[in-house]
Write a structure and sequence with these properties.
Layout lengths: L16 H22 L22 H18 L4
């Protein structure tokens, strides 16, 4: 796994299209590397009932699984994970 540069370059004083294109390309490459290095096998979920409420004082294993499944589904829809 390669090391990802977490520091972004300084913004130019004036708008520079080439600089912005390089910045966008760098960010996209780093996001792609983050997603690909996390897992080569996509997450698969089944039998999940959408649940966005987690009562930490009174919960069951099934509710935790539903909340986690909902979170995984949302992250997949956004393209954050595969």
């Amino acid at each position: 796994m390669s090391r990802i540069n977490v520091r972004l370059p300084q913004a130019p004083v004036e708008y520079n299209r080439a600089h912005m294109n390089r910045l966008i390309n760098t960010l996209e490459l780093q996001l792609s590397e983050i997603n690909s290095s996390a897992s080569s096998t996509p997450f698969q979920i089944s039998n999940v009932t959408e649940d966005r409420i987690l009562d930490a004082n009174s919960t069951t294993v099934a509710e935790l699984a539903d909340v986690l499944g909902t979170l995984i589904s949302d992250l997949k829809e956004k393209g954050v994970i595969s």
